[in-house]
Fold:
Amino acid sequence: MAIPDGTKFHGVAPSVDTENKGSAQANAMRDAYTLEELGESINIFIQDNSVTRLVPEFITATPGGSSVINTTKNIIDLTWSGGSGTFTLFLPSATTIPYRFLRIVNDSTVTANDKVDIAALPGETIDGAATYEINKPYNGVAVWSDGNNWIVIQAKST
Structure:
C-alpha cells in the first residue's frame, strides 16, 4: 500500500522525554513532516555532505525528433518510441561549461533500425566530427568538454 501524499510523520526533539509521550508539552515539541519535506531534507543532506546521486535525465527519442540537453544532470537515459528513424540529441555548448562530463546511455529499445545522433553545436565537434552515433541496445558514450569541443572518453557497445 502506497503512503498518500501529504501524510505527516512526527519526529521528537532529542530533549523530549519519550516516556511522557502523551503530554501536551511533549506533543508541542514534536515536528510533523510530509514525505515531500523529508525527501527535500534528504536531498539537501546529500548535497551538503558531498554524496553523489546519479539521477538521470530521461529523454524519449522518436524518429525525426530532436532534443537539446539543457539539464544540469550529467546522465542522459534514452528510450526509443515509434518506428525506425533518426533522433538527434544536441549536446550543450562545450564552451559555456568547460570540463563538463556527460554520460549518455540507452535501454533495449534502441535497435539497429534506430539511430541516435549525438550532435555538437555548430562550431563545436565530438572527437573532430559533427555527431556521434548510437544504434545498438544498451549502448552508451561518455563525453567531456575541453572548453572548446567534446571528447569521447568512453564508448560502450554490446
